[in-house]
Amino acid sequence: MIGTFRTRLAAGAAALLAAALLTGPAQAETTAASLVDPATPAGVQPTAGPAGTLVFSDEFTGTALNTAKWKARDQERTEADRADGLRWWYKPQNVRVVPENGGNLAIDLRKLGDKQYAGGRVDTDGIFDYTHGTFEARLHVPPTNGHLGAVWLQTHSWGDIKGSAEDGAEIDLIESAYATDKYAATIHYDGYGADHVQSAQVVPAPGLHADHYHTIGLNWTATRMEFTYDGTVVRTVTDPKLISQVKEYPILSHEILEWAAGDVTTAALDYTSTMYVDHVRIWK
């Protein structure tokens, strides 16, 4: 199963990682109070997971991306080993905040040219990161057709080759890579090169494509990680080699990965191919 997954790193991705290192440490918990959206219901607690203190939230109720919380990326993401000749990018123009259904972040799919497509990505790198807690995102993923919705965590130190995820990992809460109601919950560590290691599990997701919104979550402690779907634990990790012990920052992205089911060249280029995020909330 693990061998079916491809790494995220595109030919130009290293440039973004190197540039991000220059941004300095994230403000994290020292400014967490200012990162809680006033529109988040008072006292709200996780759908699945222990009660905690809300340290970050965004209900996406405005008219534009809140750049005090998020950065929208402009980056080519074409996989180095991609065989179909297609190229793709993250483009800030594909990131919108829309008022429908109480406010949503929308990340579109767009065709740029012949065999050239764009998705989008927002993240909190240099603004907010955290260690241990509960992360939930309520979202709608579009039908998988050569493109997918993803929610993940990342840190700058994860590429250090130390034989475990303890010094940082890419933690994929969801990659909606399948046409049926299931998705990948994956942990990557030791970089994207020859030393790369991943632990992947495909988990059931009833109604993922039939119903509009679902809550994807991660309960993360020093000794345990629980991946959740609509309040149900779908994957549990207790192996210490797979559990990050350092600060990670959240990422929301719309990916055009070759291993995703279907063919993006036949995908609809309208709202039906858009990823929508109703809210993001993180507790400690």
- Please summarize the sheet with the most strands: 10 strands, mixed
Distance N terminus to C terminus?
33 Å
| Number of spatially distinct domains | 1
CATH architect. name: Sandwich
Bin the strand percentage.
Answer: 35-45%
Global mean pLDDT? 90
Note the run of SSEs as H and E.
Answer: HEEEEEEEEEEEEEEEEEE
What top-tier CATH class fits best? Mainly Beta
Helix content: under 10%
Tally of individual helices: 1
Q: From the alpha-carbon coordinates, what is the Rg to the nearest angstrom? A: 17 Å
Task: Give the overall silhouette.
Answer: globular
Low-pLDDT sequence parts: 1-30
Compute the number of strand runs. Answer: 18
CATH topology annotation: Jelly Rolls
Given helix and strand content, the structural type is mainly beta
Family: Belongs to the glycosyl hydrolase 16 family.
Domain GH16: 30-284
Protein name: GH16 domain-containing protein
Keywords: Signal
Structure overview:
There is one protein chain. With 284 residues, this protein is mainly beta. The chain has a single domain, classed as Jelly Rolls (Sandwich), CATH 2.60.120.200. The protein has one helix and 18 strands. The strands form two sheets. Strands 2, 3, 4, 7, 8, 10, 11, 12, 13 and 17 form a ten-stranded mixed β-sheet that branches. The protein is globular, with a radius of gyration of 17 Å. InterPro entries: Beta-glucanase-like, ConA-like_dom_sf, Glycosyl_Hydrlase_16. Pfam families: Glyco_hydro_16. GO terms for molecular function: hydrolase activity, hydrolyzing O-glycosyl compounds.
